[in-house]
Amino acid sequence: MLIINKNRIHYLILLLLIVNSCRIVDTKNNNGVDVINKIIDKWHADARDANFQEYFNRISDNGYYIGTDSSEIWTKAEFEYFAKPYFDKKKTWNFKTIKRSVYFSKDKNTAWFNELLNTWMGKCRGSGILEFENGSWKIKQYVLSITIPNTKIDKVIEIKSNF
Predict the structure, then answer these.
(1) Rounded to whole angstroms, how far apart are CA atoms 115 and 161?
(2) What digits encode the pLDDT tens for the residues 79-89?
(3) How far apart (Å, rounded) are the C-alpha atoms in residues 161 and 163?
(4) In a domain, 130, yes or no
């Protein structure tokens, strides 16, 4: 007859809970990069598919979205207000990633990335910061920029000088 010590069972359960709750980002095996890539890919897909709730749940409550216009520095709430009519009409944006680079802080709680995108505006650059908070990765900041070939910058400067 096997006698089980209740204290040992409690410790075993506690150990299993702790191990299960641990988040391991192993950048040597590319796992951390894959996790961030999946999050951002899904976020872009949620915009494309007009999944308002899923899209905005990925942004931290104190996150920011910085758009291509100099006036577009939005808190999450401001960006939701701006974007809601587009999501409601299913007239959202479709950003297709061409290339993305992902980096991590030493403690693996912060990730940042930059990406080259194919958009309705042509090639754009996206960059962002994610933090691991309350058990999941949240976008703290996303910046969208229009890329301009250096050979065309004089024309852009001329256009901008009229504003």
Answers:
(1) 28
(2) 999 999 999 99
(3) 5
(4) yes
Residue 9 lies in a domain: no
The structure tokens listed for 4 are: 């089980």
With helix as H, strand as E and coil as C, how does the chain read? CCCCCHHHHHHHHHHHHHHHHCCCCCHHHCHHHHHHHHHHHHHHHHHHCCCHHHHHHCEEEEEEEECCCCCCEEEHHHHHHHHHHHHHCCCCCCCEEEEEEEEECCCCCEEEEEEEEEECCEEEEEEEEEEEECCEEEEEEEEEEECCCHHHHHHHHHHHHCC
Domain residue limits at 107: 26-161
Instruction: Express each pLDDT in 66-110 by its tens digit.
Output: 999 999 999 999 999 999 999 999 999 999 999 999 999 999 999
CATH code of the domain covering residue 105: 3.10.450.50
Q: Tell if the pTM clears 0.90, that is, is over it.
A: no
